[in-house]
Write a structure and sequence with these properties.
Strand content: 15-25%
Number of strands: 12
Structural class: alpha+beta
Low-confidence stretches: none
Strand order of the largest sheet: 1-3-2-4-5
Shape: globular
Order of helices and strands: HHEHHEEHHHHEEHHHHEEEHEEEHE
């Protein structure tokens, strides 16, 4: 019978893999590679994510990696924008292509009826490789070539059929602009890798494991990964959670004891650690998830206490003053309040250095 891993043990394993038990001293590029996809619907969340995970993180280092084309922003897992290394962009996009196609068909299938999607994709590639385009620009140009078609749907076809990366200044710290796109092949001067779902699953487990098949599928936005996991089973360790769901992991991956202390962390919006599993109770309760995940797709910034989501935060600007407003979900102990206040002061120094004054307010 496979050993049982408690929810607390799964929490500590996840925090360890995500560099949230102790800030790591590794190069920014190595951290992005290890984390295997930083959620990046907005420009700044990847910077806050790395501030939480790296000692002495300097945001300009990540901006330089984007400018140097060593790190890119592209729609990948769950058809959402992620920040990944150039190598992972080429590898993941090849594996996820069928899932992106299915997602488009599921949401826009009626508008695609009778449309020559191959022709749209080919012309779209030509347009974005001639110069980077916003989706609005791309839609206008495509609609002129394909009259009678929805100018909003046409760029979505190109986004699925052509791996589109967002070019700088989009995603740069302090100077992000509109999202303009070109092809990954053109931007990186390389073709997509040969698809390998096996490699993807192993990398996922390194960053987010132990995990069930459903967890991997929820993270990737893919189905039919059970056969991949079964193929990999001889290379994996097998466990169970407290509901007897089968979990898989890399044999040598860190799985700290459940009682290892977890420091206070102030995760930014859309942090990937909240989105990487079908069963997210290893880090956030179902009750609290309803307050963090909004109906319009925003995932609020959260407070971790003892490794679990215990509140949310936001930065407010008041006449030159930057205020970190913290909303606890349950009563904080005096020690927790002190720890949140100290971490909040460090976050304000990072995120709002231009403010004349900083203040942490805990409701």
């Amino acid at each position: 019978m496979a050993p049982v891993l408690s929810r607390q043990t799964l929490n500590r394993a996840l925090l360890s893999r995500q560099l949230l038990l102790e800030r790591a001293r590794i190069p920014v590029h190595d951290a992005v590679a290890h984390l295997f996809g930083l959620q990046a619907q907005a420009p700044n969340p990847p910077y806050v994510a790395l501030w939480n995970r790296l000692a002495d993180f300097v945001p300009g280092e990540l901006s330089q990696l984007i400018t140097d084309r060593r790190v890119v922003r592209i729609a990948l897992m769950r058809s959402t924008i992620h920040l990944v290394t150039a190598e992972d962009c080429l590898a993941l996009r090849a594996v996820l292509a069928p899932a992106l196609e299915r997602a488009l068909a599921a949401t826009r299938g009626k508008e695609l009826t009778g449309l020559d999607v191959d022709a749209v994709a080919a012309y779209g590639r030509e347009l974005v490789e001639a110069q980077p385009r916003t989706f609005a620009e791309l839609g206008t140009l495509l609609a002129a070539r394909f009259p009678g078609q929805d100018a909003e749907v046409l760029p979505r076809v190109v986004r699925v059929r052509v791996p589109l990366v967002q070019v700088p200044p989009r995603g740069l710290w302090g100077s992000s602009g509109q999202a303009a796109h070109t092809s990954a092949e053109s931007w990186l001067s390389a073709g997509l890798s040969v698809p390998s779902a096996d490699d993807m699953v192993l990398r996922y487990l390194a960053a987010y494991g132990p995990a069930s098949v459903r967890d991997v599928q929820a993270w990737a936005g893919m189905t039919r990964l059970k056969e991949v996991v079964e193929r990999l089973r001889p290379r994996l360790s097998t466990f169970r959670d407290e509901q007897s769901v089968a979990l898989f992991d890399l044999p040598d991956a860190p799985r700290p004891d459940a009682d290892v202390p977890a420091p206070v962390r102030l995760l930014g919006e859309f942090d990937s650690v909240l989105l990487a599993h079908a069963d997210r109770t290893r880090i956030i309760s179902d009750e609290h998830r309803k307050r963090i995940f909004t109906i319009n797709g925003i995932i609020r910034a959260t407070v971790l206490i003892g490794g679990f989501v215990a509140g949310m935060w936001r930065i407010e600007r008041e006449r030159g003053r930057a205020v970190l407003a913290v909303e606890p979900f349950t009563a904080f102990t005096a020690a927790d309040r002190d720890a949140v206040a100290q971490e909040g002061a460090r976050l304000l120094a990072f995120a709002a250095p231009e403010a004349a004054a900083h203040e942490v307010r805990i409701a």
